[in-house]
Amino acid sequence: MASHRRPKQPSRARVTVLTTAAAAAVAISAQAANAAPSEKPSKDEVKAKVDKLYEQAEQATEKYNGAKEKQQKLQKEISTVQDNVARGQEELNELRDGLGSMASAQYRSGGIDPSLQLFLSADPDDYLDKASTLDQLSGQQVEALEDIQDKQRELAQQRAEATEKLKDLAATREELGKKKEEVQGKLAEAQKLLNSLTAAEKAALAAEQERANRSSEERVDLGSTAPASGRAMAAFQAAQSKIGSPYVYGASGPSSFDCSGLTSWAFAQAGVSIPRTSQAQASAGTRIYSQSDLKVGDLVIFYGDQHHVGFYAGNGQVLHAPRTGTVVRYESIGNMPFQFGVRI
Predict the structure, then answer these.
(1) Is 4 a catalytic residue?
(2) Active-site residue 39, yes or no?
(3) pTM of the model
């Protein structure tokens, strides 16, 4: 006969656990369904974040400019040293040829002096160490040998200098690449934020920027502040001629600029050479700590790390290349944290 056992009933504890778990799952699902979606940042919040990223990009840009300037300087120095080495090697070869001619003359007259044979060896320095007395040599031979020694030492020093500069150049190029990546990363992050805006928000931001850019092309009341000097005024006027030119990181004219690119280019037009970066320009002249003492053409340094520079334009205005997405324009000196002026 078939067995008619009753199926085993789940224990009360097991039922309780299952019921509790199911209830928790339902509650979590309900919370997830009812949870409010994360709020999208407003246009103003996005703008604030983008402005901060642009400031960070400019900080990296000035470091990039410094590395680029150092690279160019090293390349010139290395080229000079290498030219000196090449000329020195030619001179050394001529000195050795002279010793060879001396040896040939002695051979034709009956044989080479043993002392001359010795200093024609591969290492003239070794000869001097081994020669018991210099009176074994003629005065002409001593002079020729000492010239070779001096030239060899000079060449060894120049080759060592070139080697160190090449190492420094390689490190500078690596730093340059990293700073370029940092700038591009900040700009890409800023663009990603801007892309998250609606079409209407993008249009509103663009209109704000256009108003700021356009105001730079309109007549700005610069007052009657006297220029710092004739050269400073000439530099300022050169910068004025570039109003409306776009900001491009690493650019120093003539069609686009970053902040220190504009100031260094403008002073160059006035026949004055100043450093390329804002930090170096901050130490290029006499510092003016009171805004009331500023004159037209003075450089104006902003931010604690001195990563931004422009021209004082008079009447509380500066002429500068602000940041990515803008053009060379006038702005109030109060729009940025003023540190000091620099009178070139």
Answers:
(1) no
(2) no
(3) 0.66
